[in-house]
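anyone else get weird line breaks when pasting these?? whatever heres mine. first is seq + tokens for prot A
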Amino acid sequence: MRILLVGAGAVGGYFGARLVLAGEDVTFVARGAHAEAMRSRGLILRTPAGEVRTPPLRVIDLDAAQGPFDLVLVAVKWPSLADVSARLPGLLAAEGLVLPLLNGLDSEDAVAQHVGASRVIASIAYMSAGLSGPGVIETLAPTRAGLAPYRAGQEPRVEAIAALLERAGIPARRSSSYRAMLWEKMVWNAPFNAICALTGQRAGVVAERMEDLVRAGMLEVIAVARAEGAEIPLETADAMLALTRAEFPLTEPSMLQDVRAGRATEVDILQGAVVERGRRVGVDTPVLRTLATLVRGLSPREGAPPAAG
């Protein structure tokens, strides 16, 4: 199987490295010093179970990619997704599949516009990870994947991809409803990303010191999800708070990492998306609306110089 990994940051790099270590044929798309480190010495994964290293990797620019690829994992930030998706039809094999490993609720739809719904498998990553240097990925908790059919009849293909990931050491949770799967992750993502970014604290500290605020944000997400028809139990909020304390207390969500690095945040596809969907279905979201406003105040101004360091 030929695999293309587009966006080899913490999420994509981890998935790609595990697949390489499992013997799969993986080509990475990456840039800058991180890409050069991957070419020269491979990726270093620092995990709770210890450190593992890949051999030097095949790393290219997307313009240099030559298909056909049987599987494309896309782990870029949302603003790059449209450009990447437009290039995928010419890179996919006849039966090739795309797994979008992005935050938010609309990645599958965006990719399907270019490659067709039958070639998309809904997917998410459950992980606590970041780049601690060029070619070095640090994970602070167990990493898992979530997979679901994007369209009816894809169940055998979901099973095949799940088996591939599990051979690579990435447990894969199967879901029957991709919308419920995406919304369930949003229950955690929308409040924790914003509150961690605004306070500069890790998820465990936020769960302990600001539990009521986190729960209120989670319940707003659940209310909007249920209004859209996704079956998310109210108990999900307390279950996720407990999971955060048990497995993810050291997590520094991507929005906190973006703020620290002076990068634009994903506020529009996280808190902003829930607020807008709530408006459409008549569900008020005052907590998430306030968090979104505050996070937008943290984002770098267009044309402003990058943060030092």
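and prot B, same format (seq, then tokens)
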Amino acid sequence: MTAPPPLAVLHQDDALIVVDKPAGLLSVPGRGPDLQDCIAHRAQARWPDALIVHRLDMATSGLMVLARGAQVHRQLSIAFAERHVAKRYVALAHGHLADDAGTMDWPLICDWPNRPRQIVNLREGKPSLTRYRVLQRQPDGITRVALEPVTGRSHQLRVHMQALGHPLLGDELYAPPAVQALAPRLLLHAEHLALVHPRTGLPVQFDSPAPF
């Protein structure tokens, strides 16, 4: 994979930074010197007080909000934990979904022998809820779908879509090889974020059209 493009900044002020993460770039550094390039380090090179509040998978693109300083970080972390932040993703899924809208309510747990993969586990999994809405059923047998995670489990949207029978195109972890091969990357993008600004107390929202 080629190097991700330079960081795109959609908004910055004394409390918030909103960036559009490209696919293929880590949210936070990984283990090893070759996994240090990430949103956190790129942002901190420009704003030393920038702190990660939430993450996107390396393969996922789209909106991420960072906090300026520890106090704002605490405020935003609570807002995410208490589900006061609205998030919406867009994805391309294999096959045509039967229903125009619905919910996927399957508990998830890490598949430890095959980590970082996650699996549905009805007995031991953590509650995980995703709402979905069909945007377009394409004639090539692919569905464009909007996904709203109510909970924020690791790989939640990808595993839920796989469990629904419609894995995401380009998903190297959860799609069969034929579906992986339909796209050069995971076709999942965080397109919308809405939250209360931690300084002004006013609602703000940010949007990023999917690049696919």
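btw re prot B: The first helix runs from residue 39 to 46. The two ends are 17 Å apart (CA to CA).
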